[in-house]
Structures are given as C-alpha cells and as structure tokens.
Design a protein that fits this description.
The complex is a heterodimer of chains A (270) and B (271).
Chain A (H helix, E strand, L loop, with lengths): L2 H22 L12 E8 L3 H14 L3 E8 L1 H9 L6 E3 L3 H9 L9 E6 L1 E5 L20 E4 L4 H17 L3 H7 L1 E5 L2 H9 L5 E5 H5 L5 E4 L8 E7 L6 H12 L1 H9 L7
Parallel strand pairs in A: 1-2, 1-3, 6-7, 6-8
Antiparallel strand pairs in A: 3-10, 4-10, 5-8, 5-9
Chain B lengths: L1 H5 L11 H26 L4 H5 L2 H34 L5 H13 L2 H12 L6 H6 L8 H25 L3 H9 L4 H30 L2 H6 L10 H11 L1 H26 L4
Helix pairs in contact in B: 2-13, 4-8, 4-10, 4-12, 5-8, 6-8, 8-10, 9-10, 10-13, 12-13
The chains are: A alpha/beta (270), B mainly alpha (271).
Chain lengths: 270, 271
C-alpha cells in the first residue's frame, strides 16, 4: 500500500470518528424537546440490577432519552468525577462520597436526596460447604470468608456490623472472623461472585445483592447488629442535561421508581 | 535509527517529505509520553516518600517481586525445554501447539483469571481432585503465581524459541559429529549461545508478571501480604487514596524501566 493511500485512509478514519463524536452530543439544550439525549449516570455497583431496570423504564417514559450507566465502587466513581468524567447523575452507596463531591464543588449542597436504604446479610453457597448455620459460626477457624474491601462502603459497614456482633458474641469475635477473611474484594458484586462460585464459604453483602442471585442461601443479620446504609442521589452541578438529570432523580423517588427498588430488595426512602 | 543510517539517502531532515514521517511519529510518541509524565508529575507531592514507603506499599512490592521471581524461575525451568523442542523438532499439528502458546498472550487477563478459576478453583474442573490432596488454590499466594505463569510464561517460551532457531545449525551439527549427545548439545552449545535471548525473554516474562492484574484479582483475590500485588494495591488505592496509587504506580514504572534497560542491553548484538 502506498503511503499516500495509507495517509488518506487515516484521514477518512479521523473524519469518521469526529463525525461520530459530534453526532453523539446533543446540539440544542431544550427541556421540552428531549429528542435524542443521553443521560450519564454513575451508580454504586450494588444498584446494578435495579438501575438497569429503572433505566429501561425511564427510557420508555421519555422517548428519545438514553440512559448510560457506569456501575462501580463508589470511591472509584467519585474519583473519576473529580478527574473530570462528564457525568449527569451520581448515586453512590454512602453519603461520604457525596459529601466529598459537595466539598469539591461538583455537587450543590442542596441537591442530594436520600432515596433508599439497604441492609447487610450473610450469604452462603447453595450447598453451604462449611456448614454455617448462624452468624456465630463465622468465627469457626478455617472458614473461608470473603468481604468487600474496607475502602468500599459495604466493606466498612460489614466491619461495623462485626463490631456490633462482638458485643453479643464475645470479645474476640471480630478478630477471629477477620482472621478467616481470605479476600477483600474491590466491590460487592465480586463478593457475591466468589460465594456463588463456591470458592468462598460465606460473604457479607447487601440484601439487594443477595436477592439478585436466587441460588444463594441467606442468613439475616438482626436489626440491632445490622448497619443500615442510606443511598444519596444528586445531579451534578456541571451536568449538561440538568433538567433531565433532575427528572431522573424525581423518578427514583416516585411511587413507580420506589416500587422497582423494593422489588430488588431495597428499603424505602426514609 | 541504525537502519536509517545504513541507507544514507534516507536520513532525517533530507527532502520535503520528511514531515510525513515526523508528524505521525511525534504524535504517537507524545501520546505515550504525556500520560506517563503526568503520572510522575502528579505523584511528586510532599507525601510521596511516605506513600511509597507505607506498610501496604512495601508489602505489595515485596509480594510482587517474590511472586514474579518465582514465576520467572518456573518459566525458565519448564519453558526452556519446551522452546528447544519447538525450535528443533518437527511434528504434526505443531502449529496448533504454537497457537496454544500464543493464546494467553492475546487473551484479556480477565479471561485467564476466569479460566484458572473454573479449572483450579474449589468447584473447578480439577478442584475436587486438588481438594482431595488438601490443596485449595484460590486466595493463596500460589494462585498469584499461577495467574502470572499463565499470562507471562508464553513470552519467555516465544523469545527462547526464536533465540534457539537463530543459532547456526552448523555449530550444532559439528557438536553431534564430535559425538555429543542431545543433552550435551542442548546444555553446552544451545544454552550458552542462546543465553542472551533466554535472558531477555526471562526479563520480559518478569516485567509482565510484575504488571499482572486481571487474572490475579479474579483467581487470587485481594488480601494484604498474601495476594495483594502492586497492581492490585494501585487499583484499590484509586478507590481509597490516590496518593498511594500514584506513588506505587511510579515505583512500578521505575522498576519496569530498569528491567527494560537491562533487556535492551541484552538484545544488542555482542560486540
């Protein structure tokens, strides 16, 4: 192939990519005519299934709107926003991440609203290879326990719950349990996957994650030993689709949105 | 550059078409240089040393160095005979064998991790069998090494195979004529003559093993001091403490630069 040809082909490719990019961006910012608009929503991994369904419902309600989700650990998402990711709505699994964005000026102080609560459960593989019947069994030496890493909210809540259990089950309960941890997974879905595959004997996750995988066995953690997670949601101050972003938040707090969330195991907004 | 110098009428700065080469080249070079420079720039904050020398960072670094060294050693011990065999023996379906060895190089590491998990995990194809021997691989340091060997040993085998293939056949044949057996030829002719290629392949494997992330986090998980290697600590640092992630990234980059410089020296034809 001659160099000229090669050069022309690269040029065409470059033009094509530029064309794609410009056509993907909304040209007019109008609230009444939401032709083809793309809402980018950064969502905590624990909301994956619920938001996938809600996104579909929202798109059906507002024709021409597409909702693009980025599911991940709340911290990672927050860092990506701080590093300049173009985001319209942020829904982390804890209020700390939202507060950090408020402090950084990415979210208006008045924007965040609590839209659901979540609680922790203990999950076991379908055949329960380690024979775990109660929370106390978690301290039996040799059990392969998988937790979310302390860096992610569910990992922090798990350790807080273990702290509470220590008061009931004996002074060294938490230490014994933590000695059984074989892996600190980087997000809650990884904990579910490792237990589901049977590689781990038990894991602590949100009830909403357990509901998503019917073959898991669930051991409830009583309310007095549990840690309730509250999830905030807010449009980003710099969102290019602020009106649509607010509509999405409103939809989540509407009866229809809340009903979908309950279906996936979440508790109602307080 | 050496190639350009061999053809004097194509030296840089000569003729009006030079920009056709310079412009794309510079664009690509800048594209590589900028992010790496930004990484170094951002990491050079007051807390750099404290971050780079934090307990977590040191544990991750020593685990990475230890596991990647074991990986390299295993790759050499098992890979050298395989490379020799591939470069010297002719047999049916050899192309398929070579394809099998190239596959781990091109597959995403996450595929490798999943494959290892369904093969050697507790519920994996061979997991029950391993379990009877009292071995459970996932979440252990051994699993880290498994993941690294899977993705990086093929690089060594490939380099060694090419190295062996380039050795002058006559040297080998004259050794046979003088009555050497196959092992002697391998050990006393092929290994010394291929040493540079073997060493450069080993270092490539080592650097790849140092950088292994996807297969490790899937198959070995993440536990400080047991399975948390440098790349995993960097990934988690991204979620908790960007300073630590940046410092660790730069440390890993420096180690890689040193190893690559050694490879460059080895790749130079002997003077």
């Amino acid at each position: 192939m001659s160099l000229k040809k090669l050069f022309l082909i690269s040029l065409c490719l470059a033009c094509f990519l530029t064309a794609c990019k410009s056509s993907a961006q909304p040209e007019v910012e109008s609230d009444d005519a939401p032709e083809s608009r793309n809402l980018i929503v950064f969502v905590a991994a624990s909301l994956t299934d619920a938001f996938t369904e809600i996104g579909g419902n929202f798109e059906a309600r507002y024709p021409g709107v597409t909702v693009t989700f980025n599911f991940g650990g709340s911290q990672m998402l927050r860092t990506q926003i701080e590093e300049g990711a173009p985001v319209d709505v942020f829904a982390p699994a804890n209020e700390e991440e939202m507060d950090l964005l408020i402090r950084g000026g990415f979210v208006l102080e008045t924007s965040p609203r609590i839209f659901l609560t979540n609680r922790l459960v203990l999950i076991l593989p379908a055949d329960n290879p380690a024979g775990i019947d109660s929370l106390e069994d978690l301290s039996v030496p040799g059990i392969k326990l998988v937790l979310a890493a302390e860096e992610v909210p569910v990992g922090r809540y798990s350790r807080q719950a273990l702290e509470k259990m220590t008061a009931s089950f004996g002074a060294d309960f938490k230490d014994k349990v933590l000695a059984n941890v074989v892996s600190n997974e980087d997000n809650v879905r990884q904990v579910v996957a490792k237990v589901q595959l049977g590689e781990a004997d038990a894991g602590i996750v949100y009830v909403s994650d357990a509901v998503a995988v019917p073959e898991l066995q669930i051991i409830e953690i009583p309310a007095d030993l549990n840690v309730a997670a509250t999830y905030p949601i807010a449009p980003l101050a710099e969102s290019a689709n602020i009106a649509l972003a607010e509509k999405f938040v409103d939809y989540l707090l509407s009866n229809e949105g809340q009903a979908t969330l309950r279906k996936w195991g979440f508790g109602p907004a307080p | 550059m050496t190639r350009l110098q061999k053809k004097p009428h194509h030296t840089l700065g000569d003729g009006h078409s030079t920009w056709i080469f310079l412009l794309p080249s510079l664009t690509l070079l800048v594209f590589f240089a900028l992010p790496l420079a930004a990484l170094v720039y951002r990491s050079l904050a007051p807390g750099f040393l404290a971050n780079a020398l934090s307990e977590q960072a040191l544990k991750a670094l020593s685990l990475s160095l230890a596991t990647s060294s074991v990986t390299t050693a295993v790759s050499i011990v098992l890979g050298t005979p395989l490379a020799y065999l591939l470069s010297h023996w002719k047999f049916k379906h050899k192309a398929w064998l070579e394809l099998l060895l190239d596959l781990p190089i091109v597959l995403p590491p996450s595929v490798a991790g999943l494959a290892l998990l369904v093969a050697f995990g507790r519920r994996g194809l061979f997991g029950a069998w391993l379990g009877e021997l009292g071995i459970s691989l996932p979440f252990t340091t051994a699993a880290v090494v498994f993941a690294q060997i899977f993705v990086s040993a093929p690089l060594y085998v490939r380099a060694a195979r090419i190295g062996f293939a380039h050795i002058d056949k006559q040297l080998e044949e004259s050794a046979y004529v003088e009555g050497a057996n196959q092992w002697q030829v391998f050990n006393e002719v092929m290994i010394p003559l291929g040493a540079r290629a073997l060493a450069s392949g080993a270092i490539l494997t080592w650097t790849r093993a140092l950088g292994e992330f996807g297969a490790t986090i899937l198959f070995a998980g993440n536990l400080e001091g047991v399975t948390q290697t440098m790349p995993i600590a960097i990934y988690l640092g991204f979620e908790r403490n960007l300073g630590v992630a940046l410092a660790l990234s730069v440390v890993l980059m420096v180690v890689s630069v040193i190893l690559l410089m050694v490879t460059k020296r080895l790749d130079k034809p002997s003077d």
